[in-house]
């Protein structure tokens, strides 16, 4: 459900995503950006991972984590956006 709401991010430039979602501790030249979308009362975080190629968002993943976000998932192969 959240994935359908975020489909519009695919193909946008880093500048457009910054204007839409804000900076949020993302290093501008990085190829992967993260945004915490939601935290429930138990501490489970819903995290958006954006993958960039040539400063354009190509793919994204939404993962749920408890506690600290320790690693970035590998970019999926043939993942439809």
Any idea of the CATH class?
A: Alpha Beta
**CATH third-tier fold name:** Beta-lactamase Inhibitory Protein, Chain:B, domain 1
Class from helix and strand fractions = alpha+beta
**Record field, number of beta strands:** 3
**What gyration radius follows from the Cα positions, in whole Å?**
12 Å
Q: Give the low-confidence spans.
A: none
Number of domains: 1
In the CATH classification, which architecture applies? 2-Layer Sandwich
| Rough outline | globular
Output mean pLDDT: 84
Helix percent reads 10-25%
Counting H and I runs of at least 4 residues, what is the number of helices?
2
Q: Taking strands numbered 1, 2, ... along the chain, how are they ordered across the largest sheet?
A: 1-2-3
| Strand portion | 35-45%
Order of helices and strands: HHEEE
Q: Which sheet architecture does the biggest sheet show?
A: 3 strands, antiparallel
N-to-C CA distance:
14 Å
């Amino acid at each position: 459900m959240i994935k359908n709401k975020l489909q519009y991010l695919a193909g946008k430039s880093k500048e457009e995503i910054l204007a839409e979602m804000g900076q949020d501790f993302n290093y501008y030249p990085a190829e992967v950006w993260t945004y915490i979308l939601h935290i429930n009362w138990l501490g489970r975080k819903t995290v958006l991972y954006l993958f960039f190629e040539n400063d354009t968002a190509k793919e994204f993943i939404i993962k749920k984590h408890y506690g600290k976000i320790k690693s970035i998932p590998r970019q999926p192969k043939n993942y439809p956006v």
